[in-house]
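quick q for whoever's on today - can somebody do inverse folding on this one?? i tried earlier but teh output was garbage lol. tokens:
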């Protein structure tokens, strides 16, 4: 084969590991407890992923990355930005596109500015329920959820 696949997992705490175990453990989430994972360190200067296995330091220089991630630090453009800094080619959208589209409010505003229709929306940002800073829980419920519920029914 022309390419060798290396599986890198990122934990919820942001720790990076090279995983060489059974792929079924990835889907189940059990890979985190496997003895077949090795801490990975990144070198932005060289674009290498470095890990230690059996007392030996190993450096990998990826040809391309396939980021299969969900949520913060993955879909929001940060991971792609890191790969860009390291000079690692990557599939998927640019860091900028990831950052914009991860922010649903900003995406809707941009779509509207380009004449693209979007459904009615409003942004709830930094609300402390009941504080009156933006509204109370019941205000939000009445203004949004009931309206959406009725839109769905009719």
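ok took a stab at it. sequence:
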């Amino acid at each position: 084969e022309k390419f060798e696949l290396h599986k890198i997992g990122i934990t919820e705490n942001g720790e990076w590991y090279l995983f060489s175990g059974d792929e079924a453990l990835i889907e189940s989430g059990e890979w985190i407890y496997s003895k077949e994972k090795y801490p990975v360190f990144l070198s932005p200067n060289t674009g290498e992923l470095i890990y230690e296995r059996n007392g030996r330091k190993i450096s990998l220089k990826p040809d391309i990355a396939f980021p299969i991630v969900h949520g913060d630090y993955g879909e929001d453009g940060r991971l792609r930005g890191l790969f860009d800094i390291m000079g690692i080619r990557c599939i998927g959208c640019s860091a900028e596109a990831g950052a914009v589209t991860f922010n649903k409010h900003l995406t809707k505003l941009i779509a509207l500015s380009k004449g693209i229709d979007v459904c009615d929306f409003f942004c709830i940002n930094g609300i402390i329920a009941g504080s009156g800073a933006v509204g109370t829980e019941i205000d939000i419920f009445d203004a949004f959820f009931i309206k959406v519920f009725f839109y769905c029914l009719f």
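fwiw The CA atoms of residues 47 and 86 lie 4 Å apart. also Helices lie at 24-28, 78-86, 95-102, 104-113, 137-153. so keep that in mind when u check it
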